[in-house]
Amino acid sequence: MEEKKRGGGKQEIVRALSHPVRVEILQALHGRIASPIELSREIGQRPAVVSYHTGTLLKCGCLELVHSRPRRGAIENFFAVAPRSLISGS
After folding, report:
1. CATH architecture of 2-81
2. How many CB atoms lie within 10 A of CB 80?
3. Can you give the residue ranges of every domain in the chain?
4. Torsion-angle region of residue 23: left (phi > 0), alpha (psi -120 to 50) or beta?
5. Banded pLDDT at 79 (limits 50, 70, 90)
6. Where do the H-state alpha helices sit in the chain?
């Protein structure tokens, strides 16, 4: 049963990494922490698009939520590449 869970996780990561915006996000986050707002400026995508894709990367374990803070009546989240993900090199 454990093998099935791990295999499904790897497939989920492969699917997540098949989208070019997600790859751009991971490249932009290499060795640092940033919010979707900051990333959207860097990669030239709308903040909503970046937020959606960071959520997908978070669910599959490629990103981790480092901290959050209130910003203009909303919550701004800050992400980093997850230390144990396939893409971190660890």
Report:
1. Orthogonal Bundle (1.10)
2. 17
3. 2-81
4. alpha
5. very high
6. 2-16, 20-28, 36-43, 47-59
What are residue 60's phi and psi, to 5 degrees? Answer: -90, 0
Closest by CA position to 49, among listed 18, 24, 68, 21: 21
> pLDDT tens, 63-75?
999 999 998 888 9
Rounded Cα distance, 3 and 46, in Å = 38
Convert the pLDDT of each residue in 3-59 to its tens digit.
444 444 778 888 888 899 999 999 999 999 999 999 999 999 999 999 999 999 999
How many Cβ atoms from other residues are within 10 Å of residue 62's Cβ?
A: 25
DSSP 6: H
For residues 55 and 53, what is the distance between their CA atoms, to the nearest angstrom? 5
